[in-house]
Amino acid sequence: MEVETTAFARNVKTSGGGIAVDAIGDILGGQESTVLISDSLFSDHEADLGAIEDSYVIRALEESVVDIQQSTIARNDAFAVGWVGVPDVPVRSDGSLSNSVVWDNAGGPVVLSPSHIIGVCNQGELGGVFPAVPPTDPMLITTPRGDFRLDPLSASIDACSVAATSGKGLDGVLRTMEPFDRGAFEF
Q: Residue 82: CB partners within 8 Å, gap ≥ 6?
């Protein structure tokens, strides 16, 4: 399944994630789930942070693959992304986070347990994807074009040498020239 150029905003949830991918059926003879999320924005979600399993904006469960490319996950009352396995079960979720901005999420950044995730050219609160890199403010601002745009001084502008996706950002600006910007919106 592909989710492209989509804004997910102001969702209130009491269980599951904003997007939840669960392939537990694979263990029982079902199919593995694979989702590609690109050029999308996830903002202002509300969740019950007391129930960790229910407090992700994007949640990948057992044997699922979630690839997130050139997206912005910001200002959520939840953990940003969770690639989550099952304790004591030899399965894991996989995927990637590339050319994305993760910032100002109340629950924290990216959660990994036990998973195999590739991270390339990201900025913000990255937690398990780049635990050695300190969080850096991507300088998201509101402009006449809308919220979560990159400030002209942001280090996320022209930061990535390879576009994770081809085409255009969330607001229709083409990603045609290298280097490319991080996040859902091309500057």
A: 17, 56, 58, 59, 60, 110, 111, 113
